[in-house]
Request: fold
Amino acid sequence: MSVCVNIVLMTKLDKAKVELQTAINNQAVLERTIQDQNEQIKKALEQAKKTAQQIQSLNTQYTQSQAQVTKLRNKFANFNLEGMAMTEPEVLEGKVNRASARVVENLTTITNPEQFDEKVTDNTATTN
Reply:
């Protein structure tokens, strides 16, 4: 009978060892998963900060643009172009020509396809 009891105890002990090893393995997997998720959360928070900064920058640019639009609207609201065209057409023509020239100059500057080209230097030696 003691042999049977020993076998039963050994079987229970082996089963407990297997369960303990399974629990240890599961804990290791859980810890790795938690670590990975924490790293993902940190990256997401960093990206959210960058996004918030970009949004703030865009909002600032938008506010500045709106201020320029308002300034231009107010400036044009002060002009009576129809009346000026009737009474002083030469003055109006000069103003329109100067403004058109500025617009063309600005468009040429901002749409210049060569503005981002790097200057190429030729460092090759020539032989005669």
